[in-house]
Amino acid sequence: MIRDQIPLRGHLTISLNNRVVQEVDNMVVDGGASWVANRMLDAPAADSPVDSMQVGSGTADPEVGDTGLTTLGTSTAITTVGVSSPDIGVQFSTTFLATVGSGAITEAGLFAGAAMIARTTFDVVNKGAADELAITWTIKISNGT
Question: Is residue 86 part of a domain?
Answer without folding.
Answer: yes
